[in-house]
Amino acid sequence: MSEFSDLTICKDAQIMLKKAQEEGIQTAWDRLKKQEPQCGYCELGVSCRICAMGPCRIDPFGEGPQLGVCGADADIIVARNLARMVGAGSASHSDHGRDLVLVLREIGLDKTSNYKIADAAKLMLIAKEYGINTDKISEGETARQLAEAMMEDYGMKKGILSFISRVPKQRIDVWKKVNVIPRGIDWEISEMLHRTHMGVDNDYVSILLQAVRSSLADGYGGSMIGTELSDIIFGTPQPGFSEVNLGVLKEDQVNILVHGHSPIVSEMICIAVEDGDMLALAKSKGATGINLAGLCCTGNELMMRKKIPMAGNHLMTELTIVTGAVEAIIVDYQCIMPSLGQIAQCYHTKMYTTSDKAKFKFMEHVEFTPQNAREQAFKIVREAVENFSRRDKKRVSIPCTPVRSMTGFSVEAIVAALGGTLTPLIEAIKAGKIKGAAGVVGCNNPKIKHDYGHVELIKGLIANDILVLTTGCVNVAAGKAGLQVPEAKELAGPGLKEICGALGIPPVLHVGSCVDNSRILVIACALANALGVDIDKLPLAAAAPEWYSEKAVTIAFYAMASGIYTVLGVMPPIGGSTKVVELATSGLNNVFGACFAVEPDPVAACTLITSHIALKRKDLGLGV
Ligand code: SF4
Ligand code: MSK
With a 6 A CB cut-off, is 198 part of the ligand 1 pocket? Predict the structure, then answer.
Protein backbone atom coordinates (compact mmCIF):
# COMPACT_ATOMS: atom_id res chain seq x y z
CA MET A 1 0.00 0.00 0.00
CA SER A 2 1.45 3.33 -0.99
CA GLU A 3 1.41 6.12 1.56
CA PHE A 4 -0.79 8.09 -0.84
CA SER A 5 -3.34 5.36 -1.48
CA ASP A 6 -5.87 7.14 0.73
CA LEU A 7 -5.76 10.13 -1.66
CA THR A 8 -5.96 8.40 -5.03
CA ILE A 9 -6.52 4.95 -6.47
CA CYS A 10 -4.15 5.67 -9.37
CA LYS A 11 -0.63 4.24 -9.22
CA ASP A 12 0.79 7.00 -11.44
CA ALA A 13 -0.69 9.65 -9.14
CA GLN A 14 0.61 7.91 -6.00
CA ILE A 15 4.15 7.75 -7.39
CA MET A 16 4.06 11.39 -8.49
CA LEU A 17 2.62 12.57 -5.17
CA LYS A 18 5.62 10.97 -3.46
CA LYS A 19 7.98 12.70 -5.89
CA ALA A 20 6.16 16.01 -5.34
CA GLN A 21 6.59 15.64 -1.61
CA GLU A 22 10.31 14.85 -1.98
CA GLU A 23 10.78 17.84 -4.27
CA GLY A 24 8.82 20.21 -2.02
CA ILE A 25 5.94 20.73 -4.46
CA GLN A 26 2.50 21.54 -3.02
CA THR A 27 -0.51 20.01 -4.71
CA ALA A 28 -4.26 20.53 -4.42
CA TRP A 29 -4.37 17.87 -1.69
CA ASP A 30 -1.80 19.78 0.41
CA ARG A 31 -3.61 23.05 -0.09
CA LEU A 32 -6.96 21.47 0.86
CA LYS A 33 -5.42 20.34 4.13
CA LYS A 34 -4.22 23.89 4.81
CA GLN A 35 -7.72 25.23 4.17
CA GLU A 36 -9.33 22.90 6.69
CA PRO A 37 -11.59 23.33 8.50
CA GLN A 38 -13.33 25.09 5.64
CA CYS A 39 -15.96 27.71 6.46
CA GLY A 40 -19.12 25.99 7.74
CA TYR A 41 -21.37 28.90 6.73
CA CYS A 42 -20.11 28.72 3.14
CA GLU A 43 -20.43 24.93 3.09
CA LEU A 44 -24.09 25.29 4.08
CA GLY A 45 -24.60 28.12 1.58
CA VAL A 46 -25.78 30.59 4.26
CA SER A 47 -23.13 33.28 3.78
CA CYS A 48 -23.83 36.16 1.42
CA ARG A 49 -21.55 38.85 0.03
CA ILE A 50 -23.71 39.99 -2.83
CA CYS A 51 -23.81 43.60 -1.61
CA ALA A 52 -21.81 46.05 0.48
CA MET A 53 -24.30 46.03 3.39
CA GLY A 54 -22.85 42.55 3.96
CA PRO A 55 -21.12 40.20 4.14
CA CYS A 56 -23.89 38.47 6.08
CA ARG A 57 -24.40 35.00 7.43
CA ILE A 58 -27.28 33.09 8.91
CA ASP A 59 -26.75 31.05 12.06
CA PRO A 60 -27.71 27.48 11.13
CA PHE A 61 -28.36 26.65 14.81
CA GLY A 62 -31.05 29.29 15.14
CA GLU A 63 -29.34 31.18 17.95
CA GLY A 64 -27.59 33.96 16.02
CA PRO A 65 -28.90 36.15 13.18
CA GLN A 66 -31.58 34.61 10.98
CA LEU A 67 -31.70 37.48 8.49
CA GLY A 68 -29.06 39.33 6.46
CA VAL A 69 -28.89 43.14 6.70
CA CYS A 70 -31.37 43.41 3.80
CA GLY A 71 -33.74 40.92 5.45
CA ALA A 72 -32.88 37.90 3.28
CA ASP A 73 -33.39 34.60 5.10
CA ALA A 74 -31.51 31.31 4.73
CA ASP A 75 -33.79 30.05 1.92
CA ILE A 76 -33.22 33.14 -0.21
CA ILE A 77 -29.47 33.21 0.43
CA VAL A 78 -28.99 29.49 -0.30
CA ALA A 79 -31.12 29.67 -3.46
CA ARG A 80 -29.32 32.79 -4.69
CA ASN A 81 -25.87 31.27 -4.15
CA LEU A 82 -26.83 28.03 -5.89
CA ALA A 83 -28.49 29.86 -8.76
CA ARG A 84 -25.38 31.99 -9.30
CA MET A 85 -23.33 28.80 -9.53
CA VAL A 86 -25.67 27.52 -12.23
CA GLY A 87 -25.50 30.84 -14.06
CA ALA A 88 -21.67 30.80 -13.99
CA GLY A 89 -21.57 27.20 -15.21
CA SER A 90 -23.96 28.02 -18.08
CA ALA A 91 -21.87 31.08 -18.96
CA SER A 92 -18.66 29.03 -19.11
CA HIS A 93 -19.93 26.31 -21.45
CA SER A 94 -21.91 28.75 -23.53
CA ASP A 95 -19.02 31.16 -23.99
CA HIS A 96 -16.96 28.19 -25.19
CA GLY A 97 -19.78 27.46 -27.69
CA ARG A 98 -19.75 31.11 -28.77
CA ASP A 99 -16.06 30.88 -29.71
CA LEU A 100 -16.91 28.08 -32.14
CA VAL A 101 -19.75 30.14 -33.61
CA LEU A 102 -17.26 32.96 -34.23
CA VAL A 103 -14.80 30.59 -35.93
CA LEU A 104 -17.60 29.15 -38.10
CA ARG A 105 -18.55 32.69 -39.18
CA GLU A 106 -14.95 33.48 -40.09
CA ILE A 107 -14.86 30.29 -42.18
CA GLY A 108 -18.13 31.29 -43.84
CA LEU A 109 -16.83 34.76 -44.64
CA ASP A 110 -13.58 33.26 -45.95
CA LYS A 111 -11.62 35.30 -43.41
CA THR A 112 -9.46 32.42 -42.18
CA SER A 113 -7.45 29.80 -44.01
CA ASN A 114 -6.54 28.06 -40.75
CA TYR A 115 -9.93 26.49 -40.09
CA LYS A 116 -12.13 24.62 -42.54
CA ILE A 117 -15.31 22.56 -42.57
CA ALA A 118 -14.38 18.98 -41.75
CA ASP A 119 -17.89 17.50 -41.79
CA ALA A 120 -19.83 19.17 -44.61
CA ALA A 121 -22.70 16.66 -44.34
CA LYS A 122 -23.25 17.59 -40.70
CA LEU A 123 -23.07 21.29 -41.57
CA MET A 124 -25.91 20.76 -44.06
CA LEU A 125 -27.99 18.74 -41.58
CA ILE A 126 -27.67 21.28 -38.78
CA ALA A 127 -28.27 24.18 -41.18
CA LYS A 128 -31.51 22.51 -42.29
CA GLU A 129 -32.46 22.02 -38.65
CA TYR A 130 -32.07 25.78 -38.31
CA GLY A 131 -34.43 26.30 -41.25
CA ILE A 132 -31.72 27.42 -43.68
CA ASN A 133 -32.44 26.60 -47.32
CA THR A 134 -29.11 25.09 -48.35
CA ASP A 135 -30.18 24.18 -51.91
CA LYS A 136 -28.70 27.08 -53.80
CA ILE A 137 -26.00 28.37 -51.50
CA SER A 138 -22.34 27.46 -51.15
CA GLU A 139 -20.82 25.64 -48.20
CA GLY A 140 -19.27 28.91 -47.03
CA GLU A 141 -22.55 30.78 -47.23
CA THR A 142 -24.25 27.95 -45.33
CA ALA A 143 -21.59 28.25 -42.62
CA ARG A 144 -22.11 32.01 -42.40
CA GLN A 145 -25.88 31.74 -42.23
CA LEU A 146 -25.72 28.97 -39.62
CA ALA A 147 -23.26 30.95 -37.48
CA GLU A 148 -25.51 34.00 -37.63
CA ALA A 149 -28.62 31.96 -36.80
CA MET A 150 -26.75 30.56 -33.80
CA MET A 151 -25.76 34.08 -32.74
CA GLU A 152 -29.49 34.76 -32.51
CA ASP A 153 -29.78 31.79 -30.13
CA TYR A 154 -27.45 33.72 -27.86
CA GLY A 155 -29.57 36.86 -27.98
CA MET A 156 -33.20 37.96 -27.63
CA LYS A 157 -34.50 37.81 -31.16
CA LYS A 158 -35.76 34.23 -31.38
CA GLY A 159 -37.45 33.87 -27.99
CA ILE A 160 -36.83 30.10 -27.97
CA LEU A 161 -33.65 28.12 -28.64
CA SER A 162 -33.50 26.24 -31.93
CA PHE A 163 -32.43 22.87 -30.47
CA ILE A 164 -35.53 22.78 -28.24
CA SER A 165 -37.10 21.23 -31.36
CA ARG A 166 -35.16 18.05 -30.45
CA VAL A 167 -36.98 17.74 -27.11
CA PRO A 168 -40.03 15.44 -26.80
CA LYS A 169 -43.33 17.33 -26.80
CA GLN A 170 -44.26 15.96 -23.38
CA ARG A 171 -41.10 17.46 -21.87
CA ILE A 172 -41.73 20.82 -23.51
CA ASP A 173 -45.19 20.79 -21.91
CA VAL A 174 -43.58 20.18 -18.50
CA TRP A 175 -41.27 23.14 -19.06
CA LYS A 176 -44.14 25.33 -20.32
CA LYS A 177 -46.11 24.75 -17.13
CA VAL A 178 -43.36 26.24 -14.99
CA ASN A 179 -42.15 28.72 -17.60
CA VAL A 180 -38.57 27.48 -17.96
CA ILE A 181 -38.21 27.14 -21.73
CA PRO A 182 -34.94 28.95 -22.46
CA ARG A 183 -35.44 32.04 -24.64
CA GLY A 184 -31.87 33.07 -25.36
CA ILE A 185 -28.57 31.81 -23.95
CA ASP A 186 -27.15 35.14 -22.84
CA TRP A 187 -30.66 36.28 -21.88
CA GLU A 188 -31.11 33.52 -19.30
CA ILE A 189 -27.64 33.90 -17.82
CA SER A 190 -27.97 37.66 -17.61
CA GLU A 191 -31.44 37.38 -16.06
CA MET A 192 -30.03 34.90 -13.55
CA LEU A 193 -27.55 37.54 -12.38
CA HIS A 194 -30.24 40.23 -12.37
CA ARG A 195 -32.69 38.17 -10.32
CA THR A 196 -30.06 37.40 -7.71
CA HIS A 197 -29.07 41.04 -7.22
CA MET A 198 -30.23 42.41 -3.86
CA GLY A 199 -33.89 43.24 -3.88
CA VAL A 200 -35.02 41.48 -7.06
CA ASP A 201 -36.25 37.84 -6.88
CA ASN A 202 -36.79 36.87 -3.26
CA ASP A 203 -38.79 33.69 -3.66
CA TYR A 204 -36.48 30.69 -3.42
CA VAL A 205 -38.60 28.58 -5.79
CA SER A 206 -38.75 31.33 -8.39
CA ILE A 207 -34.96 31.86 -8.15
CA LEU A 208 -34.31 28.14 -8.63
CA LEU A 209 -36.69 27.92 -11.59
CA GLN A 210 -34.62 30.60 -13.32
CA ALA A 211 -31.54 28.52 -12.48
CA VAL A 212 -33.25 25.63 -14.30
CA ARG A 213 -33.97 27.87 -17.30
CA SER A 214 -30.37 29.06 -17.33
CA SER A 215 -29.10 25.46 -17.21
CA LEU A 216 -31.40 24.46 -20.09
CA ALA A 217 -30.00 27.39 -22.07
CA ASP A 218 -26.63 25.70 -21.65
CA GLY A 219 -27.63 22.07 -22.22
CA TYR A 220 -29.84 22.70 -25.25
CA GLY A 221 -28.03 25.89 -26.23
CA GLY A 222 -24.39 26.79 -25.60
CA SER A 223 -23.13 23.26 -24.96
CA MET A 224 -25.13 21.70 -27.79
CA ILE A 225 -23.89 24.40 -30.18
CA GLY A 226 -20.33 23.79 -28.88
CA THR A 227 -20.55 20.08 -29.61
CA GLU A 228 -22.23 20.32 -33.01
CA LEU A 229 -19.88 23.02 -34.28
CA SER A 230 -16.77 21.22 -33.01
CA ASP A 231 -17.92 18.23 -35.05
CA ILE A 232 -18.58 20.39 -38.12
CA ILE A 233 -15.25 22.20 -37.94
CA PHE A 234 -12.97 19.42 -36.68
CA GLY A 235 -14.82 16.25 -37.64
CA THR A 236 -17.49 14.07 -36.06
CA PRO A 237 -15.74 11.55 -33.79
CA GLN A 238 -15.55 7.91 -34.82
CA PRO A 239 -14.58 4.98 -32.60
CA GLY A 240 -10.93 4.09 -32.30
CA PHE A 241 -8.22 3.39 -29.77
CA SER A 242 -5.88 5.60 -27.85
CA GLU A 243 -4.01 5.45 -24.56
CA VAL A 244 -4.30 6.98 -21.14
CA ASN A 245 -2.31 7.79 -17.94
CA LEU A 246 1.04 9.48 -17.26
CA GLY A 247 2.76 6.69 -19.18
CA VAL A 248 1.71 8.38 -22.42
CA LEU A 249 4.58 10.83 -21.84
CA LYS A 250 7.75 9.74 -23.65
CA GLU A 251 11.21 9.95 -22.14
CA ASP A 252 12.98 10.31 -25.48
CA GLN A 253 10.57 12.81 -27.05
CA VAL A 254 9.53 16.43 -26.65
CA ASN A 255 6.34 16.25 -24.59
CA ILE A 256 3.69 18.89 -25.20
CA LEU A 257 0.40 18.93 -23.31
CA VAL A 258 -2.82 20.78 -24.14
CA HIS A 259 -5.23 21.62 -21.34
CA GLY A 260 -8.59 23.32 -20.93
CA HIS A 261 -11.79 22.80 -22.91
CA SER A 262 -11.83 24.24 -26.39
CA PRO A 263 -10.51 22.38 -29.43
CA ILE A 264 -9.81 25.62 -31.31
CA VAL A 265 -6.19 26.00 -30.13
CA SER A 266 -5.32 22.34 -29.62
CA GLU A 267 -6.34 21.30 -33.14
CA MET A 268 -3.75 23.77 -34.48
CA ILE A 269 -1.09 22.47 -32.08
CA CYS A 270 -1.90 19.02 -33.43
CA ILE A 271 -1.01 20.21 -36.95
CA ALA A 272 2.22 21.89 -35.82
CA VAL A 273 3.59 18.84 -33.96
CA GLU A 274 3.27 16.76 -37.13
CA ASP A 275 5.17 19.24 -39.29
CA GLY A 276 8.37 17.93 -40.89
CA ASP A 277 10.44 20.99 -39.98
CA MET A 278 9.38 20.74 -36.35
CA LEU A 279 10.26 17.04 -36.27
CA ALA A 280 13.66 17.79 -37.80
CA LEU A 281 14.23 20.49 -35.20
CA ALA A 282 13.30 18.02 -32.44
CA LYS A 283 15.81 15.51 -33.81
CA SER A 284 18.49 18.17 -33.94
CA LYS A 285 17.90 18.72 -30.22
CA GLY A 286 18.39 15.02 -29.45
CA ALA A 287 14.71 14.01 -29.21
CA THR A 288 13.30 11.17 -31.29
CA GLY A 289 10.05 13.02 -31.94
CA ILE A 290 7.31 15.29 -30.63
CA ASN A 291 4.69 13.74 -28.43
CA LEU A 292 1.35 15.51 -27.97
CA ALA A 293 -0.99 14.49 -25.15
CA GLY A 294 -4.09 15.93 -23.55
CA LEU A 295 -5.38 16.95 -20.14
CA CYS A 296 -8.99 17.41 -19.01
CA CYS A 297 -11.52 18.28 -21.69
CA THR A 298 -9.24 19.76 -24.34
CA GLY A 299 -7.63 16.33 -24.11
CA ASN A 300 -11.03 14.67 -24.49
CA GLU A 301 -11.73 16.72 -27.63
CA LEU A 302 -8.46 15.60 -29.25
CA MET A 303 -8.82 12.02 -28.06
CA MET A 304 -12.35 11.74 -29.46
CA ARG A 305 -11.39 13.03 -32.90
CA LYS A 306 -7.67 12.42 -33.34
CA LYS A 307 -7.01 9.57 -30.85
CA ILE A 308 -4.36 11.74 -29.18
CA PRO A 309 -3.54 10.09 -25.81
CA MET A 310 -4.67 11.49 -22.46
CA ALA A 311 -2.10 12.18 -19.75
CA GLY A 312 -4.62 12.83 -17.00
CA ASN A 313 -7.70 14.42 -15.53
CA HIS A 314 -8.22 17.39 -13.24
CA LEU A 315 -6.19 16.21 -10.22
CA MET A 316 -3.42 14.86 -12.47
CA THR A 317 -2.69 18.22 -14.10
CA GLU A 318 -0.19 19.37 -11.47
CA LEU A 319 1.41 15.93 -11.35
CA THR A 320 2.21 15.95 -15.06
CA ILE A 321 4.71 18.75 -14.42
CA VAL A 322 6.24 16.80 -11.52
CA THR A 323 7.31 14.08 -14.01
CA GLY A 324 9.98 16.55 -15.14
CA ALA A 325 9.31 15.36 -18.69
CA VAL A 326 6.99 18.08 -20.00
CA GLU A 327 8.46 20.76 -22.25
CA ALA A 328 5.29 22.84 -22.59
CA ILE A 329 1.67 23.03 -21.50
CA ILE A 330 -0.68 25.09 -23.63
CA VAL A 331 -3.93 26.09 -21.97
CA ASP A 332 -7.15 27.60 -23.28
CA TYR A 333 -9.74 28.03 -20.53
CA GLN A 334 -11.61 26.41 -17.62
CA CYS A 335 -10.36 23.99 -14.94
CA ILE A 336 -6.77 25.22 -15.21
CA MET A 337 -5.46 25.48 -11.67
CA PRO A 338 -3.57 28.75 -11.10
CA SER A 339 -0.99 26.62 -9.26
CA LEU A 340 0.27 25.22 -12.58
CA GLY A 341 2.30 28.30 -13.44
CA GLN A 342 3.84 28.28 -9.97
CA ILE A 343 4.74 24.56 -10.11
CA ALA A 344 6.19 24.95 -13.61
CA GLN A 345 8.67 27.47 -12.15
CA CYS A 346 10.28 24.54 -10.28
CA TYR A 347 10.84 22.58 -13.52
CA HIS A 348 11.79 23.45 -17.08
CA THR A 349 8.16 23.31 -18.29
CA LYS A 350 7.01 26.37 -20.26
CA MET A 351 3.40 27.43 -19.79
CA TYR A 352 1.36 29.25 -22.43
CA THR A 353 -2.03 30.94 -22.25
CA THR A 354 -3.87 31.47 -25.52
CA SER A 355 -7.10 33.30 -24.76
CA ASP A 356 -7.57 36.88 -23.72
CA LYS A 357 -10.22 35.52 -21.34
CA ALA A 358 -7.84 33.34 -19.36
CA LYS A 359 -4.50 34.78 -18.33
CA PHE A 360 -2.32 33.40 -15.53
CA LYS A 361 0.71 34.42 -13.53
CA PHE A 362 3.91 32.63 -14.62
CA MET A 363 2.50 31.80 -18.05
CA GLU A 364 3.43 33.45 -21.36
CA HIS A 365 0.46 34.82 -23.26
CA VAL A 366 0.28 33.96 -26.95
CA GLU A 367 -3.09 35.17 -28.19
CA PHE A 368 -4.77 32.91 -30.76
CA THR A 369 -7.19 34.29 -33.34
CA PRO A 370 -8.72 32.47 -36.33
CA GLN A 371 -6.27 34.45 -38.48
CA ASN A 372 -3.01 33.82 -36.61
CA ALA A 373 -3.70 30.39 -35.06
CA ARG A 374 -1.38 28.39 -37.27
CA GLU A 375 1.50 30.82 -36.90
CA GLN A 376 1.08 30.95 -33.11
CA ALA A 377 0.86 27.15 -32.86
CA PHE A 378 4.16 26.82 -34.73
CA LYS A 379 5.78 29.46 -32.51
CA ILE A 380 4.81 27.57 -29.35
CA VAL A 381 5.78 24.16 -30.69
CA ARG A 382 9.17 25.51 -31.87
CA GLU A 383 9.83 26.97 -28.40
CA ALA A 384 8.74 23.72 -26.75
CA VAL A 385 11.15 21.75 -28.93
CA GLU A 386 13.96 24.14 -28.10
CA ASN A 387 13.10 23.72 -24.43
CA PHE A 388 13.95 19.99 -24.66
CA SER A 389 17.63 20.81 -24.10
CA ARG A 390 16.74 22.41 -20.75
CA ARG A 391 15.21 19.16 -19.47
CA ASP A 392 17.03 17.82 -16.39
CA LYS A 393 17.22 14.10 -17.20
CA LYS A 394 18.00 13.21 -13.58
CA ARG A 395 14.63 14.60 -12.48
CA VAL A 396 12.57 12.74 -15.09
CA SER A 397 10.21 10.05 -13.86
CA ILE A 398 7.47 8.57 -16.04
CA PRO A 399 5.75 6.29 -13.57
CA CYS A 400 3.93 3.62 -15.59
CA THR A 401 3.04 2.20 -18.97
CA PRO A 402 -0.07 3.51 -20.71
CA VAL A 403 -3.43 1.75 -20.73
CA ARG A 404 -5.30 1.21 -24.02
CA SER A 405 -8.65 2.97 -24.17
CA MET A 406 -11.45 3.20 -26.74
CA THR A 407 -12.94 6.57 -27.61
CA GLY A 408 -14.94 8.42 -30.26
CA PHE A 409 -18.55 7.56 -29.40
CA SER A 410 -20.41 10.50 -30.91
CA VAL A 411 -24.17 10.03 -31.34
CA GLU A 412 -23.53 9.30 -35.00
CA ALA A 413 -20.93 6.65 -34.10
CA ILE A 414 -23.23 5.00 -31.56
CA VAL A 415 -26.09 4.88 -34.08
CA ALA A 416 -23.71 3.47 -36.70
CA ALA A 417 -22.46 0.80 -34.26
CA LEU A 418 -26.11 -0.16 -33.73
CA GLY A 419 -26.60 -0.62 -37.48
CA GLY A 420 -28.06 2.77 -38.37
CA THR A 421 -30.90 3.21 -35.86
CA LEU A 422 -31.44 3.20 -32.11
CA THR A 423 -33.86 0.25 -32.49
CA PRO A 424 -31.39 -2.46 -31.38
CA LEU A 425 -30.68 -0.47 -28.21
CA ILE A 426 -34.40 -0.06 -27.54
CA GLU A 427 -34.97 -3.78 -28.15
CA ALA A 428 -32.09 -4.68 -25.81
CA ILE A 429 -33.59 -2.43 -23.12
CA LYS A 430 -37.06 -3.93 -23.65
CA ALA A 431 -35.63 -7.45 -23.46
CA GLY A 432 -33.82 -6.56 -20.23
CA LYS A 433 -30.40 -7.36 -21.66
CA ILE A 434 -29.54 -3.73 -21.03
CA LYS A 435 -31.49 -2.59 -17.96
CA GLY A 436 -30.93 1.09 -18.66
CA ALA A 437 -28.24 3.69 -19.18
CA ALA A 438 -26.41 6.13 -16.93
CA GLY A 439 -24.29 9.16 -17.73
CA VAL A 440 -21.37 9.31 -15.32
CA VAL A 441 -19.80 12.73 -15.69
CA GLY A 442 -17.70 15.43 -14.13
CA CYS A 443 -14.53 16.25 -12.36
CA ASN A 444 -12.18 15.26 -9.58
CA ASN A 445 -12.34 16.86 -6.17
CA PRO A 446 -9.64 16.27 -3.52
CA LYS A 447 -12.47 15.83 -0.98
CA ILE A 448 -13.19 12.45 -2.64
CA LYS A 449 -10.47 9.83 -3.13
CA HIS A 450 -9.22 10.54 -6.66
CA ASP A 451 -11.02 8.43 -9.30
CA TYR A 452 -12.41 6.06 -6.63
CA GLY A 453 -15.93 7.54 -6.85
CA HIS A 454 -15.98 7.21 -10.64
CA VAL A 455 -14.49 3.76 -10.97
CA GLU A 456 -16.45 2.03 -8.19
CA LEU A 457 -19.76 3.48 -9.34
CA ILE A 458 -19.14 2.52 -12.97
CA LYS A 459 -18.10 -1.02 -12.05
CA GLY A 460 -21.28 -1.45 -10.03
CA LEU A 461 -23.48 -0.10 -12.81
CA ILE A 462 -22.10 -2.26 -15.60
CA ALA A 463 -22.23 -5.35 -13.36
CA ASN A 464 -25.96 -4.58 -13.13
CA ASP A 465 -26.33 -4.45 -16.93
CA ILE A 466 -26.50 -0.66 -17.05
CA LEU A 467 -24.74 0.85 -20.06
CA VAL A 468 -22.53 3.76 -18.97
CA LEU A 469 -21.79 6.89 -21.01
CA THR A 470 -18.92 9.02 -19.72
CA THR A 471 -17.82 12.60 -20.32
CA GLY A 472 -15.18 14.93 -18.92
CA CYS A 473 -12.65 13.78 -16.36
CA VAL A 474 -14.50 10.51 -15.72
CA ASN A 475 -13.09 9.26 -19.02
CA VAL A 476 -9.56 9.25 -17.69
CA ALA A 477 -10.60 7.42 -14.52
CA ALA A 478 -12.54 4.81 -16.49
CA GLY A 479 -9.82 4.49 -19.12
CA LYS A 480 -7.07 3.97 -16.56
CA ALA A 481 -9.17 1.33 -14.82
CA GLY A 482 -9.42 -0.58 -18.11
CA LEU A 483 -13.17 -0.01 -18.39
CA GLN A 484 -13.16 1.60 -21.84
CA VAL A 485 -12.01 -1.35 -23.94
CA PRO A 486 -14.23 -4.06 -25.44
CA GLU A 487 -12.58 -6.61 -23.10
CA ALA A 488 -14.20 -4.80 -20.15
CA LYS A 489 -17.40 -6.61 -21.13
CA GLU A 490 -16.13 -9.34 -18.82
CA LEU A 491 -16.94 -7.01 -15.90
CA ALA A 492 -20.48 -6.44 -17.16
CA GLY A 493 -23.63 -8.35 -16.31
CA PRO A 494 -24.63 -11.14 -18.73
CA GLY A 495 -27.01 -9.07 -20.88
CA LEU A 496 -24.72 -6.08 -21.32
CA LYS A 497 -21.79 -8.43 -21.91
CA GLU A 498 -23.69 -10.13 -24.74
CA ILE A 499 -24.60 -6.83 -26.44
CA CYS A 500 -21.09 -5.36 -26.08
CA GLY A 501 -19.60 -8.60 -27.41
CA ALA A 502 -21.90 -8.56 -30.45
CA LEU A 503 -21.16 -4.90 -31.23
CA GLY A 504 -17.46 -4.93 -30.29
CA ILE A 505 -17.89 -1.97 -27.95
CA PRO A 506 -16.95 -1.38 -24.30
CA PRO A 507 -19.69 -1.27 -21.63
CA VAL A 508 -18.47 2.25 -20.80
CA LEU A 509 -18.61 4.60 -23.79
CA HIS A 510 -16.40 7.70 -24.02
CA VAL A 511 -18.80 10.26 -25.47
CA GLY A 512 -16.58 13.29 -25.08
CA SER A 513 -15.83 16.43 -23.12
CA CYS A 514 -17.99 18.38 -20.67
CA VAL A 515 -19.92 20.24 -23.39
CA ASP A 516 -20.54 16.83 -24.96
CA ASN A 517 -23.04 16.04 -22.23
CA SER A 518 -25.26 17.49 -24.92
CA ARG A 519 -24.66 14.23 -26.84
CA ILE A 520 -26.29 12.39 -23.91
CA LEU A 521 -29.25 14.78 -24.08
CA VAL A 522 -29.60 14.09 -27.81
CA ILE A 523 -29.66 10.33 -27.20
CA ALA A 524 -32.16 10.68 -24.33
CA CYS A 525 -34.45 12.83 -26.50
CA ALA A 526 -34.16 10.43 -29.44
CA LEU A 527 -34.95 7.40 -27.23
CA ALA A 528 -37.98 9.15 -25.73
CA ASN A 529 -39.21 10.27 -29.15
CA ALA A 530 -38.78 6.75 -30.54
CA LEU A 531 -40.80 5.27 -27.69
CA GLY A 532 -43.36 8.10 -27.67
CA VAL A 533 -42.81 8.83 -23.99
CA ASP A 534 -41.30 11.64 -21.93
CA ILE A 535 -37.63 11.35 -20.90
CA ASP A 536 -38.53 10.91 -17.20
CA LYS A 537 -40.24 7.62 -18.08
CA LEU A 538 -37.01 6.10 -19.41
CA PRO A 539 -34.67 3.89 -17.35
CA LEU A 540 -31.96 6.55 -17.27
CA ALA A 541 -29.86 8.20 -14.57
CA ALA A 542 -26.92 10.55 -14.22
CA ALA A 543 -24.13 10.87 -11.67
CA ALA A 544 -21.30 13.26 -10.89
CA PRO A 545 -19.35 11.36 -8.22
CA GLU A 546 -16.40 13.75 -7.84
CA TRP A 547 -17.71 17.07 -9.14
CA TYR A 548 -16.11 20.38 -8.19
CA SER A 549 -17.03 22.86 -10.92
CA GLU A 550 -19.92 25.30 -11.30
CA LYS A 551 -20.36 23.76 -14.76
CA ALA A 552 -21.11 20.41 -13.10
CA VAL A 553 -23.95 22.04 -11.12
CA THR A 554 -25.35 23.37 -14.37
CA ILE A 555 -25.11 19.94 -15.99
CA ALA A 556 -26.85 18.38 -12.98
CA PHE A 557 -29.63 20.97 -13.28
CA TYR A 558 -30.27 20.39 -16.98
CA ALA A 559 -30.13 16.62 -16.56
CA MET A 560 -32.68 16.79 -13.74
CA ALA A 561 -34.89 19.25 -15.64
CA SER A 562 -34.79 16.90 -18.63
CA GLY A 563 -36.29 14.22 -16.36
CA ILE A 564 -33.10 12.36 -15.46
CA TYR A 565 -32.53 11.35 -11.82
CA THR A 566 -29.10 12.71 -10.81
CA VAL A 567 -26.82 11.54 -8.00
CA LEU A 568 -24.07 13.86 -6.74
CA GLY A 569 -21.04 12.59 -4.86
CA VAL A 570 -20.24 15.94 -3.23
CA MET A 571 -22.85 17.90 -1.28
CA PRO A 572 -23.66 21.22 -2.94
CA PRO A 573 -23.75 24.23 -0.59
CA ILE A 574 -27.48 24.05 0.20
CA GLY A 575 -27.55 22.36 3.63
CA GLY A 576 -28.46 25.65 5.35
CA SER A 577 -31.98 25.67 3.91
CA THR A 578 -34.22 22.71 4.71
CA LYS A 579 -36.69 24.02 2.13
CA VAL A 580 -34.09 24.05 -0.68
CA VAL A 581 -32.82 20.60 0.36
CA GLU A 582 -36.37 19.23 0.40
CA LEU A 583 -37.11 20.75 -3.00
CA ALA A 584 -33.88 19.41 -4.54
CA THR A 585 -34.14 15.89 -3.15
CA SER A 586 -37.87 15.24 -3.55
CA GLY A 587 -40.06 18.27 -4.36
CA LEU A 588 -38.65 18.58 -7.90
CA ASN A 589 -40.10 15.15 -8.67
CA ASN A 590 -43.57 16.67 -8.71
CA VAL A 591 -42.51 19.22 -11.31
CA PHE A 592 -39.84 17.59 -13.50
CA GLY A 593 -40.35 13.88 -12.73
CA ALA A 594 -36.77 13.76 -11.44
CA CYS A 595 -34.76 15.07 -8.53
CA PHE A 596 -31.27 14.98 -7.00
CA ALA A 597 -29.68 12.68 -4.46
CA VAL A 598 -26.38 13.21 -2.67
CA GLU A 599 -24.32 10.11 -1.97
CA PRO A 600 -20.53 10.18 -1.59
CA ASP A 601 -20.24 6.39 -1.26
CA PRO A 602 -20.15 5.03 -4.83
CA VAL A 603 -21.48 1.63 -3.76
CA ALA A 604 -24.53 3.24 -2.17
CA ALA A 605 -24.85 5.58 -5.18
CA CYS A 606 -24.93 2.51 -7.41
CA THR A 607 -27.78 1.04 -5.34
CA LEU A 608 -29.72 4.31 -5.69
CA ILE A 609 -29.33 4.25 -9.46
CA THR A 610 -30.09 0.56 -9.97
CA SER A 611 -33.22 0.88 -7.80
CA HIS A 612 -34.32 3.94 -9.77
CA ILE A 613 -33.80 2.15 -13.08
CA ALA A 614 -35.70 -0.91 -11.80
CA LEU A 615 -38.59 1.36 -10.84
CA LYS A 616 -38.67 3.02 -14.25
CA ARG A 617 -38.61 -0.39 -15.96
CA LYS A 618 -41.52 -1.55 -13.82
CA ASP A 619 -43.53 1.58 -14.67
CA LEU A 620 -42.91 0.92 -18.37
CA GLY A 621 -44.13 -2.65 -17.92
CA LEU A 622 -40.67 -4.07 -18.59
CA GLY A 623 -39.12 -6.94 -16.66
CA VAL A 624 -36.92 -5.95 -13.74
FE1 SF4 B 1 -26.31 40.78 3.30
FE2 SF4 B 1 -28.58 41.00 1.89
FE3 SF4 B 1 -26.33 42.19 1.02
FE4 SF4 B 1 -26.53 39.50 0.99
S5 SF4 B 1 -27.76 40.94 -0.21
S6 SF4 B 1 -24.77 40.71 1.66
S7 SF4 B 1 -27.80 39.12 2.80
S8 SF4 B 1 -27.45 42.62 2.87
S1 MSK C 1 -12.46 19.21 -17.34
S2 MSK C 1 -15.37 20.68 -15.57
S3 MSK C 1 -12.67 19.13 -14.09
S4 MSK C 1 -14.90 17.23 -15.83
FE5 MSK C 1 -14.18 19.35 -18.31
FE6 MSK C 1 -12.83 17.84 -15.76
FE7 MSK C 1 -14.83 18.93 -14.49
FE8 MSK C 1 -13.17 20.44 -15.69
Answer: yes
